[in-house]
Amino acid sequence: MNEMNSDWNDLKFFLAVARNSGLSGAARQAGVSAATLGRRMQMLEQATGIDIFRRHARGYDLTEQGEALFARVAALDAKVRPLFERKDHHTRTLVKLSGGHWTLHALAEHIPRISKAAPEAMLRLISATDHMKINHREAVIGIRNQRPEKTGLACRKVGTVAFAGYATDTAIEGWIRVLSKAPSARWLADQIDIKTVMEANAPRLARDLALQGLGRVILPSFIGERTPGLVRVHPRISELDHEQWLVSHDEDRFIPAVRKVLDATYKALHSIIRTPV
Questions:
Q1: CB 64 within 8 Å of CB 57
Q2: For residues 56-95, b (16+ Cβ closer than 10 Å) or e, as one string?
């Protein structure tokens, strides 16, 4: 790689664009316009002599060379950042914890215990259907439905999540379909002998409609069994079973606050998904 002529600000902008997979989010984070960021990234590519990004309609993806550059710059940023951070007793370590909607919904009641176990951590909970990129530090800890294949990540299996059908009464036959690409939505769409009576664009909304007696809904058993007013009306759907993994960056897991949050979160998740099915 050619010697860089860009200053440290360009590298910080580069990290923002890479972590946000595009200019819009990076611009809000960096406090500059998207147009300015676009020009700076072009200048950075010219200075380094490599193609850093693949640009498309949805945003920016790192090329293989861009991934290598990101790893070097992120490591340097991790070393430099503490020099400019306050070190008094008020400082807490930001720990970003991401997961699916239902998982974080169930985890919420355990957050007081997790916070108590790691008082030096500032928790930021991120409910996201798309996996946050832990290797890009979009999240520090991720709750995943499969073991990641990328290197540099530490994984711990929590258990297996099961799914079943729930409604207010066994006499209810029609189903409420969630409009998504989730496996449960695809499974319901593939059942030719099942009648759909209503559609919703979000799992929480579908459950709320089921609670009004409007139809059956597929839920993770750790949600369905704990929802007052719902009973199981369809047996466990084994095709939807999936493993649950707790994932962190291989280096970040040794940070004391991160380690404490990991351990407390694992205990909470393990107790949550141990639902009889």
A1: no
A2: eeebbebeebbeebbeebbeebeeeeeeeeeeeeeeebeb
In sequence order, what are the beta bridge partners of 94? 122
Q: How many CB atoms lie within 10 A of CB 106?
A: 20
pLDDT surpasses 50 at 183: yes
**Contacts of 163 by beta carbon, 8 Å cutoff, 6+ apart:** 184, 218, 219, 220, 221, 236, 237, 240, 241
Residues sharing a CB contact under 8 Å with residue 221, sequence separation 6 or more, in sequence order: 161, 162, 163, 164, 236, 275, 276, 277
Q: How far is CA 101 from CA 63, 74, 259, in A?
A: 30, 29, 23
Within 81-141, residue ranges assigned H as helices are 101-107, 111-117
* Residue 138 CB partners (closer than 8 Å, separation 6+): 19, 96, 98, 132
- In this prediction, residue 134 has a pLDDT band, given cuts at 50, 70 and 90, of low
Between strands 141-144 and 231-234, the pairing is unpaired
pTM: 0.65
Q: How far apart are alpha carbons 209 and 137 in whole angstroms? A: 37
